Amino acid sequence: xxxxxRPPIQVYLPLTSLDECxxxxxxxxxxxxxxxxxxxxxxxxxxTNDWKEHKPTCKTHRIDIVxxxxxLASLQDHCRFHVDRKETLHPALKHKIVREDGNATxxxxxxxxxxxxxxxxxxxxIISNERLQEWHPTARSDSERLDLWHMLMRxxxxxxxxxxxxxxLLRSIYTTNTTGSAHPRTRLRxxxxxxxxxxxxxxxxELISMASFPLAxxxxxxxxxxxxxxxNHHWIYFTTVHKEELILDCNLFCMEYPHxxxxxxYDLPWKHPTTPGDExxxxxxxxxxxxxRYLNTLxxxxxxxxxxxxxxxxxxxxxxxxxxxxxxxxxxxPQAILVFMDKxxxxxxxxxxEGRDLFQEWVLRIFRGLDEVTIQSNAWxxxxxxxxxxxLLTTYQDMIGVDSSPExxxxxxxxxxxxxxxxxxxxx
Length: 428
Ligand SMILES: [Zn+2]
Ligand SMILES: [Zn+2]
Hints:
Layout: E1 31-32, E2 40-41, H1 44-54, E3 60-64, H2 65-81, E4 95-105, E5 111-120, H3 129-135, H4 142-153, H5 158-173, E6 185-190, E7 193-206, E8 215-218, E9 233-240, E10 245-249, E11 259-262, E12 281-283, E13 285-287, H6 289-292, E14 300-308, H7 313-318, H8 335-345, H9 353-376, E15 389-393, H10 395-399, H11 406-416, E16 422-424
Parallel strand pairs: 3-6, 5-8, 15-16
Antiparallel strand pairs: 1-2, 4-5, 6-7, 7-9, 7-14, 9-10, 10-13, 11-12, 11-15
Helix pairs in contact: 2-9, 5-8, 5-9
Keywords: Metal-binding, Zinc, Zinc-finger
Organism: Jaapia argillacea MUCL 33604
Protein name: MYND-type domain-containing protein
C-alpha cells in the first residue's frame, strides 16, 4: 500500500457563526451536523440531500476545552520550571533572603509582608534542601522555603506564555483536515458548541485575594521589587459560534491567587513541577458558564485589546514553517511570530534576547506537548470531562496572612465554584 503524501501544512478555519444552511441558504432553524459540527443545515431534508457530498469530510475529533485546559496550564507551568532562565527569574531567586521582618507599611499605605534580600546567590531552578536552607536561613521550615520558591518560580511575564500556547493550539489543532489525510481533523469545542475564535486579551484584572498581607520584596539597595502588574495582564480567550466567551488564565498564582486544577486523570509524560502538598495540581483560573454566575465576586477581567490568533492571516502562513526540530538553543520560530509577540507585548515593550530565546523554546515545547503527546496519540480521549478545581494553600500563604479557616476556604471555593478541598503542605 502506497502512503499518501502529507498535504502541505495550512490552517483550516472553523465556522465563524451559524449563518445559513449549506444546501438552500435558508436562515431558520439552523442546526449543526452532529458528526462534525462543521456543517449547518435548516432541515433533515437538506442534510440528507447533502450527505453523499459531505460524508467524506464529516469525521471530526472535537476536543472539549474544559477537558483540555489543564494540559495547557500544565504546559505553561512546565515551561516556567524546566528551562534555564537567568534574567527573567525573580530577583529573590538570585539573592539570599536575609530577613523576614513581619509586616511593613509602604508609602501608599498598603501593608505587606516584608522580605529583605542580601548578597547575590543563585538559587535558580536547581534546588536541594541544603541549598534552600542556604538561600533562606530564617524560614521556619523546609516546606516554607519550598513554598516560597514555588511561588517565586511562577513569577514570569504572562505574555510570552499565552502567545506560545495560542500558537501551539493553532499549529497542532487547526492544521488538520480530512482531505488527503488518513486521520480525522481535530477541532476545539466548548460542550456542544464549536470554538470559532481564540486569541489573547491584554488588559487589567481586579483580583480578590485571600492574602491579607501580600509580599513586598526589598532589594539590598532599599528599592522594592515591582509586583506582577494586574494592570498589564495577558490571558487567553475562546469564543464559541454562539458568541459565548471563555477565559483561560494561568498567570495569577504569583499574585497570591490560590486557585489550581487537579491533574488527576492526566497522565502526562513531561516532568511536572510538584506543587506543595504533593498534589499534582497546576495554577489556573478558567471561567466558563458554570462560573459566570459568580462573576460579581471573581477576578474582574477588563480587556483593553483583543488579538485573535486563529483568525490572524499572517500567523496562519507563518505556522506552516514550524516543523518539529529537536529542542535546543539554536531553534528558531518564524520571524512573523516574533513580530506578533512584540505586538501583543504592547507599545515599546520588547523582549530581551533571553526573553526571545525562551519564547521560542516555549512555543516548541508547548507545541510538542500538545501535538505529539495529546492530539496525535489520542491521549485527549482519556482526559477527565470535568477536571477538579481546587484551592491551594501553602505554608507560605499561611504566614503572609491568608485566612485558612475552614469557613474562609469554603467561602473562597464557592466564589470560584470549585471543589473546596484544600491542599496544604506540611513538614514531614
Ligand atoms: Zn436548507
Ligand atoms: Zn458532518
